[in-house]
Amino acid sequence: MWPGVTRASLICLRFDDYHQDCDVETWVDTLSRYDERGLRGLVAVVPKFEGERLSADAVEFLHELRANGWELAQHGYTHENVGEGRGGALYSEQSEFAGLDRAEQARRIGAGRDVLGSHGIEPTTFVPPWHEYDRTTVRALADAGFDCLNEGRWPVPRTVEGVTLVPTHVPAVTPAMVGAGVVTLVGHPHLEDDPMANADLVAGREDRIRTPAEVTEWWREQSTLGRTVDAFEPLYSLYSH
Predict the structure, then answer these.
(1) In 10 A of CB 72, how many CB atoms?
(2) Is 35 helix (H, G, I), strand (E, B) or coil?
(3) 208 near 34, Cβ under 8 Å?
(4) What's the CA dihedral at 210, 32, 59, 195 to 10 degrees?
(5) Most buried residue, 23, 89, 101, 181, by CB count within 10 Å?
């Protein structure tokens, strides 16, 4: 039997691809049920989905969630496949950022942040579409004032170029298999048959739930493990994002 969520786990609940053209009613219903269970998560908001700017009506509910301790993150800019992902067994070939030069990545990050800022949303966490980014993305995020990138295929976070990478998990290795470390459970409420599945997975371990911003603060300021792992950044930067 898989160990599942244990006392050695920290879990982030993340909900991707919120924009004004998604089924907002389904999002409100799903996230309200999570909220009623006392579960806080992160909503990854696309600022200008496929060229259509986020509307004021679409963010009203997000402000209510934020008041209840939820985190709002920037999810790319337009969520269009204009970059080049790594591909292979662990990664996607689609990307909005990986492979683009630094100026273009910085432009997209800044433009997206401006859209969210116009709605009173000032994110500190960035979520790259299709889970894809590169070292240039991390540098551009640091320049833009982000301190967390909610992505990565590791059991623990690590800080790169001043940005803490809070991991998701390796594909096909479900969070129910992992008994230790930090794991992000990613959902898409408007696309799933059972959008409450992740809530059921963490039932009884609600005390292990953190937002990526909270994990970042713990990793940098309170965790001896975090300081130790981050000290080796010059070494693993030679072969990894």
Answers:
(1) 25
(2) helix
(3) no
(4) 80
(5) 181
Residue type, 7: R
Beta-carbon contacts of 192 under 8 Å, excluding residues fewer than 6 positions away, are: none
Q: Cα separation of 159 and 219, whole Å?
A: 9
Concatenating the DSSP letter of every residue in 158-191 gives EEETTEEE-----TTS-GGG--SEEEEEEE-TTT
Residues in the chain, how many?
Answer: 241
Tokens of 36: 């009623």
Q: What is the C-alpha separation between 186 and 63, in angstroms, rounded?
A: 21
Residue 27 in contact with residue 55, Cβ under 8 Å?
A: no
Q: Give the type of residue at 223.
A: S
| pLDDT average per 10 residues of sequence, the chain (241 residues) | 68 94 92 95 96 92 95 97 83 92 98 98 97 95 98 88 88 64 90 90 90 95 86 64 54
What is the rounded distance in angstroms from the CA atom of residue 164 to the CA atom of residue 222? 14
Is 39:209 a contact under the CB 8 Å cutoff?
yes
List residues bridging with 149 in a β-sheet: 126, 165
In this structure, how many other beta carbons lie within 10 angstroms of the beta carbon of residue 195?
20
pLDDT of residue 239: 47
- Identify whether the C-beta of residue 132 lies closer than 8 Å to the C-beta of residue 203: no
Lookup result for tokens 């599945």: 197
Give the tokens for residue 207.
């005390």
d(CA 176, CA 230): 27
Distance CA 216, CA 232 (A): 17
Phi and psi (nearest 5°) for 175?
-60, -25
Q: What CA–CA distance (Å, rounded) separates 31 from 190?
A: 11
